[in-house]
Recover the amino acids of this structure.
C-alpha cells in the first residue's frame, strides 16, 4: 500500500499552553508548541484495543487498525523510497481497581522500517503481515501484554544505525476501531460499531535540521517541552477523541483510569 523503546524511558515534560494576544483579538500559536495538524517526528495513538470481531459479512477482523503514513518533511527533498526507521512503544492501560498494579503499565517496544510516501498498517494482535487479508496488516508488530486488552501507542523516528531519536517531521496517521471487545473487558462495546480518530503528531525543534539528533535527558527519555533541540511542547494534556463506556450514569473513558 502506498501512500512506529528498547530500553529508553519516555517522559512527557508538559508546558502550559501559551496564547499570545494580538490586535483585533487574534490568537497566535506559541512557537514552542506542537501542531496536531502537521506531520511530526513523533506520533501518538491515544487508544488501541486488542482482539478480533466477526463482521456481519462473515470474515474475522482486528478490532484495531492503526495506519501510519510517512511523508516528506516540508522544505526537504526526499530520495525515492527513502527508508525511515520508527521505534514504537505499546503502553498498556490499568485501572485503579487493581491497587497493586494500577500505576504499573506494561510496555512493549519494537522497530519498523517504512519508506517515504508509504502507508503502513499495524494491529496489536501479533499477526504476521497479511494475516486477515493480503494487505492487512502490512507489517508485523509484537502483541502487547495488556491485562485489560488495550492502551496507547507512541512512535518516533530514529537513525537506522544508532537508534538515536532524530528530527523527521513526516509522520501522520489515523486509527479504525471496531469496539466489539471480548465480553467482560473494560473495552467491550457493540460488535457492529466502527470508530475512527486521527493520531496526534508532535514535531521536533524547528531550528534543527532534518535528520539531526533530538536531545534526550540523562536517562534517554524524550522531552516534549519546546526546548532547544527537544520535541515541541504539548499543552497541559493530550486529548484523544475516543468513545465513552456509558452515558447513563455519567461518561467514563473506555479504559477507566489510565495513569500511565
Amino acid at each position: 500500500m502506498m501512500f512506529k523503546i528498547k530500553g529508553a524511558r519516555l517522559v512527557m515534560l508538559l508546558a502550559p499552553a501559551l496564547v499570545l494576544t494580538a490586535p483585533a483579538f487574534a490568537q497566535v500559536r506559541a512557537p514552542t508548541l506542537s501542531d496536531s495538524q502537521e506531520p511530526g517526528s513523533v506520533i501518538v495513538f491515544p487508544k488501541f484495543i486488542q482482539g478480533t470481531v466477526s463482521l456481519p459479512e462473515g470474515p474475522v477482523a482486528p478490532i484495531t487498525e492503526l495506519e501510519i503514513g510517512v511523508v516528506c518533511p516540508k522544505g526537504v527533498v526526499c530520495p525515492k523510497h527513502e527508508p525511515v526507521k520508527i521505534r514504537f512503544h505499546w503502553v498498556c492501560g490499568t485501572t485503579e481497581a487493581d491497587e497493586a498494579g494500577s500505576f504499573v503499565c506494561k510496555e512493549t517496544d519494537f522497530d519498523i522500517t517504512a519508506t517515504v510516501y508509504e502507508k503502513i498498517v499495524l494491529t496489536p494482535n501479533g499477526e504476521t503481515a497479511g494475516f486477515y487479508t493480503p494487505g492487512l496488516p502490512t507489517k508485523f508488530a509484537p502483541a502487547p501484554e495488556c491485562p485489560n486488552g488495550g492502551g496507547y501507542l507512541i512512535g518516533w523516528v530514529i537513525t537506522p544505525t544508532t537508534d538515536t531519536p532524530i528530527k523527521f517531521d513526516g509522520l501522520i496517521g489515523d486509527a479504525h476501531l471496531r469496539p466489539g471487545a471480548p465480553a467482560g473487558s473494560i473495552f467491550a462495546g457493540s460488535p457492529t460499531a466502527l470508530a475512527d480518530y486521527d493520531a496526534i503528531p508532535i514535531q521536533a525543534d524547528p531550528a534543527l535540521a532534518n535528520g539531526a539528533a533530538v536531545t534526550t535527558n540523562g536517562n534517554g527519555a524524550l522531552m516534549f517541552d519546546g526546548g532547544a533541540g527537544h520535541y515541541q511542547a504539548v499543552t497541559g494534556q493530550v486529548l484523544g477523541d475516543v468513545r465513552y463506556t456509558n452515558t447513563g450514569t455519567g461518561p467514563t473513558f473506555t479504559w477507566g483510569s489510565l495513569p500511565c
Summary: Residues 1-26, 244-259 have pLDDT under 50 and may be disordered. Residues 166 and 213 are 4 Å apart (CA to CA).
